[in-house]
Amino acid sequence: MARRPRLSADPTAAAARHPALFRRVTRARIATVLVIAAMLGLFALGIVVLEFDGRRFVQGLFRLGEFVVFMVPPSTGNWATFMIYLHALAETVAIALLGTLLAAVPAIAVGFLAAENVVPQFVIHFLSRRFLDTVRGVDELIWALIWVNVVGLGPFAGVLAVASANFGAFGKLFSEAIEAADPRPVEGVASAGGGRLAAIRFGLWPQVAPVIASQVLYYFESNTRSATIIGIVGAGGIGLHLAEQIRTLEFQHVSALVLMILATVAVIDWLSTLLRFSIIGRRETVG
């Protein structure tokens, strides 16, 4: 039985036998140290440029505590106001749902175009990726301001803002999921005589559909919070009421609105988790 060669404990001898390996390790360590030093330098520069003041931060915490005291107990004043807020909250959820679906459907088609294993042509692949990057680079709040000026105030502008902001992200995530799919089922369909569309439909789509559905559900949950923010600029939903109550210093109304939003997000999170597990399956834990 052959004996395995023993590694020398002497680093000098090891370096003499493998000089190139040690040069690579040394360069990697130097590069790591330089990157860490650069990040620390940028952090220190940011503190100076942005005028970070610890004393002001502590004073702000005390003022935040005063605001919390003013928010107790949460109250909407009367049932009529509560029903107005509830209607606005339902509008926010509808904005998030419609915006998510409106972004997901066309993003599936663009995701296939942006996937190298589906469309190998470099030009189409490159243009699709850059188009998605461009759309994804514009923040949701900016989209809300754009659509409010295009179609006017109201929830329709909010739906278009959520859809525009999510379209680029969906396209990127979907294309990456398609590229990460196992090619063997596609090759099996093709070897059985299936065409290109049949290979995508029966070999590729069953693999990526659960992943896409899971991502859409996750973004719907996230968009419920985002739809609250864009409502502040006039894109409909409960955000407009929240901004108005903050401006008028009605802190009890503010706390009631925040609790309503948190409860809604918690319920949607619970429901979306159940749906994700029903689609992709629950992982077994090894105890």
TrEMBL record:
One of its GO terms (cellular component) is plasma membrane. It is found in: Cell membrane. It comes from the Bacteria. It is a multi-pass membrane protein. PROSITE patterns: ABC_TM1. The chain crosses the membrane at residues 30-52, 64-86, 93-115, 141-163, 226-243, 255-275. Keywords: Membrane, Transmembrane, Transmembrane helix, Transport. One of its GO terms (molecular function) is ABC-type phosphonate transporter activity. Residues 89-272 form the ABC transmembrane type-1 domain. PANTHER family: PHOSPHONATES TRANSPORT SYSTEM PERMEASE PROTEIN. Belongs to the binding-protein-dependent transport system permease family. NCBIfam families: PhnE. This is Phosphonate ABC transporter, permease protein PhnE. The lineage of its organism: Bacteria, Pseudomonadati, Pseudomonadota, Alphaproteobacteria, Hyphomicrobiales. The gene is phnE.
